[in-house]
Design brief:
Blueprint (H helix, E strand, L loop, with lengths): L1 E7 L6 E5 L8 E6 L2 E7 L5 E8 L4 E8 L6 E7 L3 E8 L4 E9 L1 H7 L9 E4 L5 E6 L2 E6 L16 E3 L4 E3 L14 E4 L10 E6 L7 E6 L16 E12 L4 E14 L3 E7 L2 E6 L2 E6 L4 E6 L12 E4 L12 E5 L11 E5 L5 E9 L2 E9 L11 E8 L9 E9 L2 E6 L2 H6 L2 E6 L11 H7 L2 H10 L4 E6 L5 E7 L5 E7 L7 E2 L2 E2 L7 E6 L6 E5 L5 E8 L5 E7 L2 E9 L4 E6 L5 E2 L11 E7 L4 E6 L2 E6 L4 E6 L4 E7 L2 E6 L4 E6 L7 E3 L11 E9 L16 E8 L4 E4 L8 E4 L7 E6 L12 E9 L5 E8 L4 E6 L6 E4 L18 H4 L5 E7 L2 E6 L5 E4 L7 E4 L7 E5 L3 E5 L4 E7 L4 E2 L6 E4 L10 E8 L4 E11 L21 E11 L4 E10 L1 E14 ...
Parallel strand pairs: 1-94, 23-24
Antiparallel strand pairs: 1-93, 2-3, 3-4, 4-5, 6-7, 7-8, 8-9, 10-11, 11-12, 12-15, 13-14, 16-17, 17-18, 18-19, 20-21, 21-22, 22-23, 25-26, 26-27, 27-28, 29-30, 30-31, 31-34, 32-33, 35-38, 36-37, 38-39, 39-70, 40-68, 41-42, 42-43, 43-44, 45-46, 46-47, 47-48, 49-50, 50-51, 51-52, 53-54, 54-55, ...
Length: about 1350
């Protein structure tokens, strides 16, 4: 009984496309990050601003845009899972996705396939949007599309409303009989032609009046090892499909246009362009026109197939470029009607090198076909590798310059500007060199002879290349401008918890605001762009100033003449107020008539900076800037809330009355009472605020189409309504409908007093303000008395509508209704403070025992983060972009935001830490561990080197050829890093052809009698050799010794000291500590070793493993070993006598990647991930029947992951409602993934599991799922489902989280399904799961 949650959402962008999906006003960029679809608009300078974001319950494998009938907007085709297609469109009414059709092909494709289906299918869309297809191996699903207007359709059908002025579309609901697609046709590829099998790629071709397919296939599968038997096995075929579709079925006739045989074995991908397609191979690329003529072949490297001489050969072997599956490319058709050769084809290789493919033709004859590497002079793409997608984000006005969005597996996704691309190519220098010339075409094709046998064409070739010479181009340096980026921390290869923000116990003489805090640190990326990522549990502020007060509960700052002049404090416990002079070292200001013997509720500048207004519990005072009292007003009831906006003051008193005063515009010495609407006399108001917004403009005469903001007096009533009225209201009041139930969508209407008002206040405070960094957007933020935060975003199409902000993972849960989390709001009052400029961000601070900050990056939705690790009692703006905060022990600090390499657009704050510099590039950082005693990190690296094939004698083996590129090898080492500066203070380098496979920090027992332990670093190394030599490895043990720092480098106070080293036969795959000893896995054996007092190492126990240990973890005396092919084993270690005790093993043979313990209330569970991206949970249950006394581990659940897991880490788990100090410790497992995401797995108690399971079932069954996808199927449908406990599957907290986003009515209804008091308990369960990582904060 476990629950799964994504701690961080995916950061790797896998797919991208541009078009008009939610708006017609400008072209939008749509990207996919695993299961999240994000829609961006771009500014003229290439910046990306988030428009919408949708979280789907499936792994998205591809996307495409197709036209939408009777609408200028497009539909989005989403391919997911093994073989599913969802066609959706944006619904502006609900601000969500409307599913038009869902197509599930997996079962049908599996039935006709002769082999097991691949994990993902490939989506292809006809350029004219007449059909799309999904193919998996040799099985195809063809789906006809209905695009454009049909003559038989009724012209009076409902259409989408298009607002020309705003460029927006308001979508009406689809009619039931509206058809967007035809009937699917599912068939084996042999229905196209009997010869087809082993399909490598299928693409729709351009410039055909009917859907036309090009198929690349191998009738007999071939790889490099058997090319001697079948040297040219690849074939190519072009078909035209004559589609016939009706309501019952789809059929087609096939017309074969061309066939090519005997092509190179390494060709694998087709790139459709105008008049033909480019065929990509590992060592060659070729051009085949739309008639099936192979016109040109480019040799890319020294391994190119020289035997294929059927076309013009272009020798570019000096490039030595290798293209591996799949090639990322960008193609743009010609934008110049007069110049058809203006089309652009760019190709990006795995190292992020950019290549321009020159395509010039006369008629159908390709006269120039070249591959030119663009010599980029700057470092715009230096830190990126393995591109995943590319899309053009600027208007397609010209191909000479363009803005491209490029997604990478490693490195940030970038928007880059290619300036004067064509001119950069045209400035190349040329010289001639001997080459082979194409002399003829395939005689088997008569049409080909008719098209290309004319003498004129051959003469042109001879004129261009006389005397068998080829052109060698030298391209002038090319500059790429990086415009913006999207943060990517994938792939994550290892994780560790250590102190990052809390290394220094004190800052500016006071306690570190992040004291006792641990961060998760990950190694991210590969190659040059590899770096460390600190995943922080809270925002780390920079402390600029620290003060100590004797008596303070609230503070304000008075700014005069654009300068901070006074600091005002009040102490509600002593009913006193004080004022301090900021410029005079905070000396007490004793002049003036400021009311000092009362509690100040509010004080601020007023009257355009010429007056000061002070509101105490029973009085309002107006002062000039010298604190001379001008007027005073007394109240009969205690003041509870104040809002000030020139020239108005809004007062809310305890009885529920409101009073609004306006400052005299001439003398500014008097306050006049503002008349209120009559209906307010019958209402009880809990709080009020003065704000400016245009949300009511459509109801105001003369302002219907205006964007001008109006001043609105806003109030929250006792029955949780939010009402507004203007200064000139004429007794007209507006209300925000649906807010009392916190519905998903809110809209403004004229207020009508209900017949019966039931006072039950839950809304404590509201704000409507703009959040963001450079691009600020308006949000409605609601704080409840239970501490919950609900946020709504204003609609882009209608300013009077608001939609609940959920984002990719929803908002962080900060509280709970029904007093379910009283602890969060009881000690310190929670109040929202809007700060318009906090280090460049417009943010909202939330005070309390656990303070929060609401902030938004321009490329993400607003996020709520815990702010530091200290409480905040009061807060005020300080200076231009800082804040002053007072904690519960009356210490005040001035905070600014850490902007350097920090990112606040994911679920937790991320900080990028570069270890490499311009002097040395450590390339890929592979493993990380933390030395607790010294508070230092150790990181292993792997530099890429050219492989040298050495024999046993150390000499280069016979047959090694230095004239061709070699394979790549590695040289590894260990870096000692101080987190105070993130400098490398010591390092150990190992020999070439070495790789550190594992490295961990361990407490090793040195003396069996005293049981004295010392913290050591153990590293396992594998040496890379030829296939004729047995594998070898070694392990090293290091200690950290304190030394005298180098002059001027105080952080270099520790060095690595080698304690022991041993070379062993067999590769060392993993290391692990167990019961004060350490374990080394060497090939098919594990060996437990003991360290003696003289630092010698003695083996004490061993155990044979099946094939290959992929991971090993320990907990006390227990050990789990994951095998690469045979599942995993559960062992025990006994020291008296030394022995390994087999306790159990998995029945299923997982291809294990990572393992970790899951300990819950004395039960031992195990979390295992395999190469099929499935997370398994097994349990050791010796008392259960059919387990053979525990030898067969119970398979509890198998849960599909949307990405590949690389590592797991066990951490303590926080229990927010645990009251006993003697309760056993609780743990959770944290996992890192290739897509940059991080997840956690938490064991649950029986009652908690049952409640949350019911909630999950209700949300899945009763709520609309985006794309029509079934979350239960996407997570649980795998080959192990029948082996698991079907009635106890893993719960997905990403679905449970939606419970907090539902309206009050819906979530109350769902909670009743779990029991009478379940609503209270469900909220406590959700809080407990949400706050499990607060164990990193040291205290609750």
């Amino acid at each position: 009984m476990n629950i799964y949650e994504d701690v961080l959402t995916a950061t790797v962008v896998s797919h991208s496309i541009t078009g008009h999906f939610t708006s017609t006003s400008q072209r939008e960029l749509i990207i996919v990050r695993t299961n999240i679809i994000s829609v961006y608009n771009t500014t003229d300078d290439g910046k990306l601003n988030l428009v919408e974001e949708f979280n789907l319950n499936a792994k998205i494998t591809d996307i495409a845009l197709i036209p939408q009938e009777k609408s200028p907007l497009s539909c989005l085709v989403i391919a997911s899972g093994v073989a599913k297609i969802s066609i959706v469109r944006f619904d502006a009414v609900t601000n969500s996705l409307e599913t038009l059709s869902l197509h599930y092909y997996e079962d049908k494709l599996s039935d006709i396939s002769l082999v097991t289906l691949a994990k993902t299918s490939k989506l292809r869309v006809d350029p004219m949007n007449r059909a799309l297809l999904l193919f998996n191996n040799d099985s195809i699903a063809l789906l006809p599309l209905f695009s454009g207007n049909h003559e038989d359709e009724d012209e009076d059908d409902e259409e989408d409303d298009y607002d020309v002025t705003r460029g927006e579309v308001t979508t009406k609901r689809s009619k039931k009989n509206e058809k967007h697609v035809g009937q699917s046709k599912i068939f084996h590829v042999k229905e196209l032609h009997q010869e087809l099998q082993n399909v490598l790629d299928i693409q729709f071709l351009n410039d055909f009046t009917k859907p036309t397919l090009a198929v690349l296939y191998q009738p007999k599968l071939t790889w490099v090892g058997n090319t001697e038997l079948n040297p040219q096995p690849t074939s190519f075929m072009i078909f035209t499909l004559n589609l016939r579709t009706n309501e019952l079925e789809t059929a087609f006739d096939v017309v074969i246009i061309a066939t090519l045989h005997d092509l190179s074995w390494d060709w694998f991908q087709l790139l459709p362009i105008s008049r033909g397609c480019v065929v990509m191979g590992n060592n060659e690329m070729a051009y085949i026109d739309n008639t099936g003529v192979l016109q040109s072949i480019i040799h890319l490297n020294s391994f190119a197939d020289k035997s294929l001489q059927r076309a013009r050969i272009i020798d570019e072997t000096e490039l030595e470029v290798f293209f591996n599956e799949k090639v990322t490319y960008f193609w743009s058709a010609s934008t110049d009607k007069k110049n058809i050769d203006d089309e652009t084809l760019l190709i990006i290789d795995a190292s992020a090198n950019l290549y321009y493919v020159r395509l010039e033709a006369e008629g159908r004859l390709l006269t120039k076909f070249d591959l030119i590497k663009l010599p980029i002079v700057n470092d715009a793409l230096k830190d990126t590798s393995n591109p995943t997608c590319v899309a053009r984000v600027d208007p397609n006005s010209s191909n000479s310059s363009m803005d491209l969005f490029i997604g990478y597996l490693s490195g940030d996704s970038l928007v880059v500007r290619l300036n004067n691309l064509k001119s950069a190519i045209e400035t190349r220098e040329e010289h001639k060199e001997s080459k082979q010339i194409f002399t003829g075409y395939d005689d088997d094709d008569d049409d080909e002879d008719n098209l290309y046998s004319d003498d004129e064409s051959k003469e042109k070739i001879d004129e261009e290349l006389p005397d068998n010479k080829q052109l060698i181009q030298t391209v002038q340096p090319f500059d790429i401008e990086q415009l913006t980026s999207l943060r990517n921390i994938g792939p994550i290869t290892s994780l560790v918890a250590g102190k990052v923000t809390s290394v220094d116990p004190n800052v500016k003489g006071l306690q570190n605001p992040n004291s006792n805090e641990y961060s998760m640190v990950a190694t991210s990326g590969s190659g040059t762009g590899s770096h460390l990522t600190a995943i922080q549990p809270s925002v780390q502020p920079l402390v600029e100033l620290a003060l100590k007060f004797i008596s303070v509960t609230q503070i304000w700052k008075l700014k005069m003449k654009n300068k901070d002049k006074y600091l005002v404090t009040t102490d509600s416990t002593k009913s006193k107020s004080d004022i301090y002079e900021i410029d005079n070292k905070f000396a007490l200001h004793k002049e003036g008539r400021l009311r000092r013997d009362a509690t100040t509720i509010h004080i601020s500048m007023f009257g355009e900076g010429t007056r000061i207004v002070q509101v105490t519990t029973n009085h309002l005072y107006l002062f000039d800037t010298d604190f001379r009292r001008l007027t005073a007003i007394k109240f009969d009831f205690e003041v509870v809330h104040v809002s000030v906006m020139d020239p108005y003051i809004l007062i809310t008193v305890l009885r529920g009355d409101i009073k609004i005063y306006e400052l005299d515009a001439l003398q500014k010495r008097k306050l006049f009472r503002v008349d209120l609407p009559e209906i307010l006399k019958e209402m009880v108001v809990t709080s009020g605020v003065i704000l400016k917004s245009n949300m009511c403009n459509e109801y105001l005469h003369g302002h219907e189409d205006s964007e001008e903001e109006q001043l609105l007096f806003t109030f929250v009533t006792a029955d949780n309504q939010i009402i507004f009225f203007l200064r000139e209201h004429n007794d007209r009041i507006f209300q925000l409908c649906g807010v009392d139930q916190l519905k998903e969508g809110l809209f403004i209407s004229t207020y009508q007093l209900p017949e019966e008002v039931v006072p039950d206040p839950s809304i404590k405070q509201v704000m409507i303000n703009k959040l963001g960094h450079n691009n600020k957007e308006e949000y409605l933020t609601i704080l409840t008395f239970g501490g919950e935060i609900y946020q709504y975003k204003k609609s882009r199409t209608r300013h009077s509508c608001f939609f609940k902000n959920t984002g990719s993972t929803g908002m962080c849960i900060t509280g709970a209704p029904d007093n379910a989390y009283a602890k969060g709001v009881s000690s310190i009052e929670r109040i929202m403070h809007y700060i318009p400029d906090y280090s460049g961000y417009s943010v909202i601070f939330l005070t309390g025992s656990v303070p929060y900050i609401i902030m938004r990056e321009d490329d993400s939705s607003p996020k709520i983060f815990r702010f530091a690790n200290l409480s905040i009692v009061s807060l005020a703006q300080w200076g231009k972009n800082s804040v002053m905060a007072v904690d519960d022990i009356k210490n005040a600090r001035v905070y600014s935001l850490d902007n350097k390499d920090s990112y606040y657009g994911n679920s937790l704050p991320l900080k990028k830490i570069k270890i490499s510099d311009s002097l040395e590039d450590f390339m890929t950082l592979t493993k990380i561990t933390y030395h607790e005693k010294s508070q230092l990190f150790l990181v292993s690296y792997a530099k890429e080197r050219e492989y040298e094939a050495l024999g046993e004698d150390g000499e280069i083996i016979v047959g090694s050829n230095d004239q061709v590129p070699h394979a790549k090898s590695f040289q590894s080492g260990i870096l000692l890093i101080n987190p105070r500066t993130w400098n490398v203070i010591d390092r150990v380098d190992f020999e070439v052809n070495s790789i550190i496979s594992d490295m961990r920090s361990m407490l090793i027992q040195l003396d069996s009698k005293s049981r004295k332990k010392r913290e050591y670093i153990v590293a396992g190394i594998t040496f890379i050799g030829t296939e004729d030599l047995p594998s070898t490895g070694a392990f090293h043990i290091y200690d950290l010794t304190e030394v005298i720092p180098e002059p001027g480098k105080p952080d270099t106070n520790f060095k690595l000291k080698e304690i022991f080293k041993e070379d062993i036969r067999g590769s060392v795959n993993s290391v692990c500590d167990i019961s004060g000893r350490f374990l080394i896995n060497q090939s098919q054996k594990i060996m437990v070793r003991d360290v003696q007092e003289d630092n010698s190492v003695v083996p004490v126990a061993f155990y044979d493993t099946p094939i290959f240990v992929s991971d090993a973890k320990s907990f006390g005396n227990f050990l789990i070993l994951g095998d690469s092919m045979q599942g995993f084993q559960f062992l025990g270690f006994d020291a008296e006598p030394y022995r390994m005790i087999p306790l159990g093993r998995s029945v299923s043979s997982f291809e294990t990647v990572s393992v970790e313990f899951l300990i819950n209330a004395g039960e031992i569970n195990f979390a295992i991930t395999d190469r099929e991206d499935i997370l398994h949970v097994l349990k050791y249950a010796p008392d259960e029947p059919n387990t053979l006394s525990g030898q067969k581990l119970v398979h509890c659940s198998s849960f599909n992951l949307y990405s590949s897991n690389t590592c797991m880490l066990m951490l303590p788990r926080n229990d927010e409602f645990e009251t006993s100090d003697k309760a056993p410790p609780k743990f959770q497992a944290i996992g890192g993934q290739v897509d940059g995401g991080i997840f956690k797995i938490i064991p649950l108690k029986e009652d908690t599991y049952r409640r949350l399971y019911v909630v999950q079932q209700q949300i899945i069954d009763k709520e609309v799922q985006l794309g029509g996808l079934n979350p239960r199927m996407e997570r649980l449908d795998n080959d192990f489902y029948q082996l698991t406990h079907v009635m106890r599957p893993m719960i997905d907290f990403n679905i449970i989280r939606r419970f907090s986003e539902l309206s009050i009515e819906r979530r109350t209804h769902f909670a009743q399904k779990a029991g009478r008091r379940a609503h209270f308990d469900i909220w406590r369960d959700i809080i407990n799961v949400e706050y499990s990582l607060r164990s990193l904060c040291g205290s609750k």
